[in-house]
Amino acid sequence: MGRWHHRAPRAVWFALVAALLALAPLAGCARREPEPAAIAVLLADDVRLEKVEGLKEGLAELGYPPERVAITVYSAGGDRSRLPALAAEAIAARPDVLVAGGGIEADTLHKSDNPGIPVVMAGVASPVRWGWIDSYARPGGLLTGLDNQHAELAGKRLELLTKLLPHVERVLVLYDPQVIPGIHALEVAEEAAGLLGVSLGVVEARSLAGALAGLGRIEPGEYDAALFLPAFVLESGAGAITAELERLGLPAMGALDLGAEAGLMAAYGNSNRAQGRQAARFVVKVLNGADPATLPIESIDNPELVVNLDVANRLGLTLKPEGMAFAHVRGASAGERGAPGASGAQSAAPDTSGAQSAGPDASGAQGAAPDAAGEVGR
């Protein structure tokens, strides 16, 4: 009995210690909830907020619902001069990932004093020509992400105008010579125009006021259609510019569907929302430890042709079945009905051999983005 009495407290003590050791990890887990991933998004204008919505959707689909991410948007509200200060503010917040909403945002972040925070491009044009990356296969720095092919597809958009409109001989091109993608896209459009037998005129859009002044010098009947090349000023000022084009009786083709208020008759590319959703793949890879220097640049998944019948009807146009057969139709006149599907929109448009060399067909835009050598050779 004495020996039993002596050992009982020791056994109880060991049992209590074992129980505490078993519970300690659980108590620690309860105290240390993982912090949400911090993402800072730099935008030149609120017109690109759709990319943020797409980013949120893509992150949720990939296992990062709203409670697992903290997204802060730094928008310049259309004033590009504010971008450097906003970029510095976003970097100072030390997020896990920086997201550039477009080309001028990516250029600003590239030129900023960044201590090493990865940058995901949520849809930009001509990243090699900008000088931000070494190649599509191996970016080589802090930037990776999505090439929206806005420049490379300029020739395809010109070709689609000839398939949609009954008569296209002269096309008015609007572009910004201050940005790399504008110059790149103009080269592609000029090559395609020669192969399609179309002549081009040019209006420089260095600013919205400059674009409108240039259009004011155009006479009705001088051109058959207008083509928007990639430029922030044309994206943010689309409504005012297309209103002036309608005065001239000109239907406009753009790089992406900006909604009915933008006034474009047609667009060929990916929406801002779709670009944001695709960019989420890069954000998740970076959050999981991937090095942006070795993450290959992707091109847009599924470019689509979108046609706004309300604009066509206002201009008194009868669009050709050849082009409408593979278009996604928008507008009250169409009852928001769509075409058979995105895959049809890409494959049903037969290319002339020349148009293919001037600008890749939609099928080419789905795969890996071209390497630097291919980019410079265009």
Describe the structure.
With 378 residues, the protein is of the alpha/beta class. It has two domains: 37-148 and 273-290, Rossmann fold (3-Layer(aba) Sandwich), CATH 3.40.50; 154-269 and 302-364, Rossmann fold (3-Layer(aba) Sandwich), CATH 3.40.50. Helices cover 44% and strands 16% of the residues. The chain contains 17 helices and 13 strands. The protein has helices at 2-31, 49-61, 83-92, 103-111, 127-130, 154-164, 180-196, 208-216, 232-236, 238-247, 272-287, 309-314, 321-324, 342-347, 353-358, 362-366, 372-377, and strands spanning 37-43, 69-75, 97-100, 119-124, 143-147, 170-175, 199-204, 225-228, 252-254, 266-269, 298-299, 304-308, 328-330. The strands form two sheets. Strands 7-6-8-9-10-12-13 form a seven-stranded mixed beta sheet. Strands 2-1-3-4-5-11 form a six-stranded parallel beta sheet. Helix 2 (49-61) packs across helix 11 (272-287) and helix 6 (154-164) packs across helix 7 (180-196). The longest helix is centred in the N-terminal third of the chain and has 30 residues, at 2-31.
What is the number of E strands? 13
Report the sheet with the most strands, covering strand number, pairing sense and barrel closure: 7 strands, mixed
CATH H-level superfamily title of the largest domain: Response regulator
Any low-confidence stretches, pLDDT <50, length ≥5? Answer: 1-8, 26-31, 336-378
Fill in the CATH topology of the largest domain.
Answer: Rossmann fold
SS-derived structural category: alpha/beta
